[in-house]
Amino acid sequence: MLGQWLDWSLDGQFPAASKGVFASGTYHLHAPGILELSPHTSSQDAHACIFSAAIHGNETAPVELVGEWLSALEAGAVTLGVPVLVILGNLPALKAQQRFLTTNLNRLFSRELTAEGKEPDRARELMAAVDSFYARHSALPKLHYDLHTAIRDSRYPRFVVEPFAESTTDATQWQWLAAAGMQAVLHQHQHSWTFSHYSKHYHAAQAFTFELGRVAPFGQNDMASLKPMLALLTALSTGQHPESQPASHMLFFQVHHELIRQTDAFQLCFAEDTANFSQFEPGSLLAQDGEAGDFWVGDTPLYVVFPNANVEVGARAALLVAPIT
Ligand SMILES: [Zn+2]
């Protein structure tokens, strides 16, 4: 069942029984794309883990990664030692191989959400699934890894975004991320209503948004470069200590400014295919907007991450970041 779950989810097929057993645990399919795994024997040193993928429907590498791990569990090659909630975020968009259908799901994860429509309804369903999973396992420390790939090339193809919240990130997380092949870390400077932010802000979970290379269709992802990441997910799910490397193997960046598209008359003043973490020198013109006017780089260089001029009005068109020394 576990190995076929992804295909079934895509086909809109559901198993006859929503609950069942595999070698080291039981599964419970709560809703389409929401699967909880419970171990027969719990590890001492466990997190309640959430692994989510396909919050953006065209980002397939994380779906393949989760699929490999589920197949290993089903084959008995990996022994489940902790509760895990596995989430495929936007199934209709995944089926259509589109980032989203009506609006970007990954900026809707707020308890104040009032919008209606497919993505807002799914955001509410996923927030409720997270709340009830963490409530069922309230004795355990919480963890949420939300897995993505980026739209464009990057000077650091594998990096994580640490959401802004009151709770702090454990130092061991950086060591695990370094060992999992992450090359850079981006600290958010203000609340941003992403899925990983939801778990950090409302549940004080250890939570990150992962960018695992560049968007590609199923079967065309560079899975070899994600082996260390697969090893991290596997170790967490067994309840064993993941491998560690010094955090200094990664570069750390802080967000300085968010470019927001405030009007239709908005443009970014650099090439559309500019790679993530490209550097712009003081005095560079980065954006023009009908309301906000021109944005120039000030006294120190800035690096551009997630540039996208074609977002909805009111949404983020780029993050401007600088390294932490
Ligand atoms: Zn994404």
Describe this structure in words.
This protein is α/β, with parallel strands linked by helices. It has 2 domains: 2-249, Zn peptidases (Aminopeptidase), CATH 3.40.630.10; 259-323, Beta Barrel (OB fold (Dihydrolipoamide Acetyltransferase, E2P)). The chain is built from 7 helices and 16 strands. It has helices at residues 2-11, 61-75, 91-96, 118-136, 171-179, 195-203, 227-238; strands spanning 19-22, 25-31, 34-39, 48-53, 84-88, 142-150, 158-162, 184-187, 206-214, 251-260, 266-268, 278-280, 285-289, 293-296, 302-305, 316-323. The strands form 2 sheets. A 13-stranded mixed sheet has the order 1-2-3-5-4-6-9-7-8-10-16-15-12, with helices on both faces. A 3-stranded antiparallel sheet has the order 11-13-14, with no helix packed on it. A hairpin with a 3-residue loop joins β13 and β14. α1 (2-11) packs across α2. The chain is globular. The mean pLDDT is 95. Bound molecules: zinc ion. The site of zinc ion (ZN) has 3 residues, from loops.
What's the total count of β strands? 16
Dominant shape: globular
Distinct small-molecule ligands in the complex: zinc ion
User: What is the typical, i.e. mean, pLDDT?
Assistant: 95
Give the class from helix and strand content and strand pairing: alpha/beta
Topology (SSEs and partners):
Elements (H helix, E strand, L loop, with lengths): L1 H10 L7 E4 L2 E7 L2 E6 L8 E6 L7 H15 L8 E5 L2 H6 L21 H19 L5 E9 L7 E5 L8 H9 L4 E4 L7 H9 L2 E9 L12 H12 L12 E10 L5 E3 L9 E3 L4 E5 L3 E4 L5 E4 L10 E8 L2
Parallel strand pairs: 4-5, 4-6, 6-9, 7-8, 8-10
Antiparallel strand pairs: 1-2, 2-3, 3-5, 7-9, 10-16, 11-13, 12-15, 13-14, 15-16
Helix pairs in contact: 1-2, 4-6
This protein binds zinc ion (ZN).
